[in-house]
Each structure stands twice: as structure tokens, then as C-alpha cells.
Amino acid sequence: MGPTRVLTKDGGFGTQMTVHVGNAVDGDPLWSARFNATNPAAVINTHLDFLQNGADIILTNTYQASVEGYVDYLDLDVEQSVELIKKTVRLAHIAKDKYLAECCEAKLHVPDGFPLILASIGPYGAHLHDGSEYTGAYVDDVPLKEITDWHRIRIDACIAAGVDALAIETIPCQAEAEALVEMLCDDYPEVKFWISYQCKDESTLAHGENFADVARSLWELLGERNARSKCLAIGVNCVHPKVTLLYDYIFLFIIVKYFLLNF
């Protein structure tokens, strides 16, 4: 096995996009996803900002993109909404191509296959525009099949447009995460992904489940499906900076699992 290195992903896309579009992102029901239609150049330039500052991985601007959102707030039909999601992935590819051309001209080495493009798959609550991605309350009322069907059309569009993997992120509840993983194992056997949770404190998911228990449960589910090789990582995102114990829990869990698997 060759040497490994830490990979750097991009940062908050909507925050960085304000450099190019001002404060128009804040308060918009589509958040930064509106600009996939209205200002694609700003989307490309935001990707380039991260690439030019060392990102090995960029995420597509699809966190808050959904068919329902585009139908309601851009007056598109379903087919047009799906095509816009695909176009959004292509914007990331345009930025990657521009960056690689810049590196070639400057005679800068970029490892083969990099930078990677992952599809940002935000939670069901992100399209509700009520902050429920930070509570997970919707999972108590919305059937899981409705949630996975909502995800499926976005995932299909991103895969069709070409991504290296899926970044399933800011998931506030155990049920949504495990339903998504089951769907991916059943229907997308070749697709790799990582999954990261939203936590309200140093031990608990937004919906109230214990993070360490959820991580263990997900790992066991992946084992039951013989799908651990599909999962690139389990982690957290969009959390308070003073939550380092979360990382202690997950690292301890990984170390113990590694020991048991290799004993």
C-alpha cells in the first residue's frame, strides 16, 4: 500500500458564493441553488475559489436543489427541474476543467483523478425552508418512502450527469440516514458515498439520537449488506466548533472496529 495523504474538501458553498452575488443567498427559499439557474458563472467561480485554494474535493451546488423547490420557486416543470440539477453537476465539471487547464499552464502537478466531484445530497428538511434540517422533526410525520423517493430523483440526476460519489450531508436523524443507505445498497450497488450527520451538541443528533449509537448502527447495517466498501466515511458537519468529543466518539469507534476486523 502506498503512502496516504489528508484530502481537503471545499467549504460552505453558500457562504463563499456571497463573494460573487452579495447577500442575495440569505433568506432565499432556494438558498444558493437559485443561482444554478440565474447566475451559473457565479457557481463556477465559487467552485474555482475552492480549487484555487487547495481543495481536493468539491461538492456540487445541489444541497438545497430539488424538483419541488424549482417547481415552486422558479416555475419550472419536473423535467426542467431535473435538467437543472444535471446542469448544476456540469457546472462543477466546467470549474474542474478550468482549474486543470490553469494548472497545466502553470506546470503544476495534479494527482490523477483529482479534483474529485461529489454530489451534495442534503436532507429532506433542507427544501422545507423552515430550519427542520436542524431538528429532523419531519421524520416523525413524513413516511420514509416519501423521503427516499424525494432523494431518489435528485440522486438519479446527479449520477446521470457524472459524479465520483455522493456526499450525503447534514442528516439530522437516524431514520433518514438508514433509509437512504438501504436504498443505495439495494438500487445503486456501484455508487460510493459518505454520510455526515447534523448534531446539536457534543453527543446528540439534531433529532435526539446518540451519535455514537447511530454511527455503530449504520456500520452494522453496512456490514449486513456487505456494503462497507461503498461507504467512504461517517462523520458530522454543520456543527458548533466546540464539539470535539464527537470526533473522539467516531475515532474510537473506527479504531475498535479496525482492531476487531484485523485481529
Automatic annotation (TrEMBL):
Q: Which Pfam families match?
A: S-methyl_trans (PF02574)
> Please, which domain of life does this record's source organism belong to?
Eukaryota
So, what pathway does this thing act in? Amino-acid biosynthesis; L-methionine biosynthesis via de novo pathway
Gene Ontology biological process: methionine biosynthetic process; methylation; S-methylmethionine cycle
**Listed InterPro entries:** HCY_dom (IPR003726), HCY_dom_sf (IPR036589), Hcy_S-methyltransferase (IPR051486)
Q: Which UniProt keywords apply?
A: Metal-binding, Methyltransferase, Transferase, Zinc
Q: What is this protein called?
A: Homocysteine S-methyltransferase 1
Organism for this UniProt entry: Zeugodacus cucurbitae
Q: What is the lineage of its organism?
A: Eukaryota, Metazoa, Ecdysozoa, Arthropoda, Hexapoda
